[in-house]
Amino acid sequence: MAEKERKETVKEKDAETGEAKLIPVYVMGKRYLVPETLTIMKALEYAGYQFIRGCGCRGGICGACATVYRKPGDYHIRVGLACQTVVEPEMYLTQIPFYPANRARYDFEKLTASPDDIFKLYPEVFRCIACNSCTKVCPMDVQVMDVISAVKQGNIERTATLSFSCIQCGLCVSRCMGELPQYHIMQLARRIYGSRIAPKAEHLNQAVEAAKSEKCQQTLQKLMKSDFKQLKELYQSREIEPEMAGEDWTPAKHDYP
Ligand code: FES
User: pTM of the entire structure?
Assistant: First the structure.
């Protein structure tokens, strides 16, 4: 589209209503005008699409909303999470709610902390040619190629630590020349690390013991005997963490109910 024509399609912000300017985007080839302030996900809904798949948390956590797009005059294929990326004029968009990737089947209880177990389940890890396409495509800025390198070196701790932000969107798999299922491999390493290598979290043990204690059980029984009104009052009067609370914030001690 010519630049002059493109400008004409863009309605300027309405000074009276304060409505956002509408910009053109293309969804699977079809053109829509959408407010420029929306994320891709909200823009698709604005355009009349309904998310049945390809949407989960709407907050950049679940990895369900991987999207690829191109921009005019730019040969790069770009990627992003639909719930986090704001639309731009003349984006050509398409959703990738699912991308097939082989996932090994295993009995986790039988796995050990040896990298050999990962190698047996995912021998394809050695097909990595270190092209770095996986890192470039990652919307969470995980250094995926470095993670795969750590797997090949048998360093489970480094694999787990470097891949901690992975949200399993699968975009790395979509670009991999070696056809690796990176996010499944990284997830297995994190499971092994958390279960077999990382030090046990003492505060978790304490919380489990506290939950089993008689005092906690009595409180639970009292709650179960409360009627809806009592539960509602209790819920509404609960202490809520202030929005700007510091990391050291802790709730006051309570004896519920
Ligand atoms: S919907 Fe969960 S990451 Fe976008």
Answer: 0.77
